[in-house]
Amino acid sequence: MKRTPSARRRVVRAGLLASCTAMLLCALLGAGAGSALAANSQLKEEFAEFLDCPEATAGVCTVAHTTSGEFKMGTKDVPIEKPITLQGGLAFSSLQAQPLIPARDGNTLISPPQKVPGGLLGIGLIEGIGGEVTATATIAGPATGIQVNQYFLAEGGGIAVVLPLKIKLDNPLLGGECLIGSDSEPVVLHLTTTKMGTIGNLAKGKITKISNVTLEDTAFAVPAAKNCGISTVLVNLLAGLPSGAGHNKAVMIGDFEQTLVQYALKYAKPPKEKKKK
Question: Domains in the chain: how many in total?
Fold first, then answer.
């Protein structure tokens, strides 16, 4: 039977808002002390994802892991081979887009360098002379420029995440500040859910997880690279930059988790240091 929009909204709201039903059941069952300690240890392990949640300013803690995908800019296609983490918080659970509250320690976007296949020239020339070329995505501007829509993330139908980026290219021949995009001229992704993931619960219903969700954008523009020293003109020529809207592609595949701040405060604890004998 086909769900109506209102019915779908109720399902998503039920999946996205953390439930305390499991907590009440556990209290009524009155598990033994040993079982309670084991369960508490398991909860802390599952809540380790939220150690950097901005608990003082958020109502909801969020963590997204991109484990695969690609980022095509002009003529260069960079596969996502190393996991990327986007973390922070939201003011409250909502069906509307909200700005992301930065992670407590400032590591809102943890994005390791991704190898550019074949080097910038596409024929391995730079790789052969000066080592490999890598591309590292960082947030352009403040982290609050990132927007998250929980409903579209789970159900599709609109923009799930707005992500402004700048891309740093690293190679000994390119200098230390070779950038595609900047705080004033970012590469802005408007990611939509093209493959809906599986909604489930962890930590006895206290954590909601969307697994194997695919987000895409094929309509963004990419500006020219700047500050690449004497290689700037060559980089732009061979990478096809600037590249207009519709000639680029971002695909991000991974998982999304969230919980209420009250649960993170209770269970997201750093491991205790062992006392030295």
Answer: 1
- Sign of the Cα torsion 191, 71, 256, 154 reads positive
Q: Which domain holds residue 139?
A: 5-267
Query: How far apart are the C-alpha atoms of 111 and 129, rounded to whole Å?
Result: 26
Pairing of strands 187-195, 179-180: unpaired
The predicted pLDDT at position 86 comes to 98
CB of 108 closer than 8 Å to CB of 161: no
Neighbours of 93 (CB within 10 A): 16
Verify cis geometry, omega within 30 degrees of 0, for the bond prior to 242. yes
**CA distances to 75, 199, 244 from 238, in Å:** 8, 42, 15
Does residue 190 fall inside a structural domain?
yes
Contact 251, 216 (CB under 8 A): yes
pLDDT at residue number 119: 72
The verdict on residue 275 lying in a domain is: no
What averages of pLDDT result for each successive group of 10 residues across the chain (277 residues)? 49 45 38 50 87 96 98 94 98 93 95 87 49 91 95 94 97 91 97 96 95 98 95 90 97 98 92 56
Report whether 139 contacts 153 (CB < 8 A). no
pLDDT in tens, 197-221: 999 999 999 999 999 999 999 999 9
Residues 6+ apart with CB under 8 A from 267: 40, 43, 44, 46, 47, 203, 206
| C-beta of residue 231 within 8 angstroms of C-beta of residue 119 | no
- CA-based diameter of the chain, in Å? 71
Q: Is residue 276 part of a domain?
A: no
pTM: 0.82
Residue 71 placed within a domain: yes
| Rounded distance between C-alpha atoms, residue 259 and residue 271, angstroms | 20
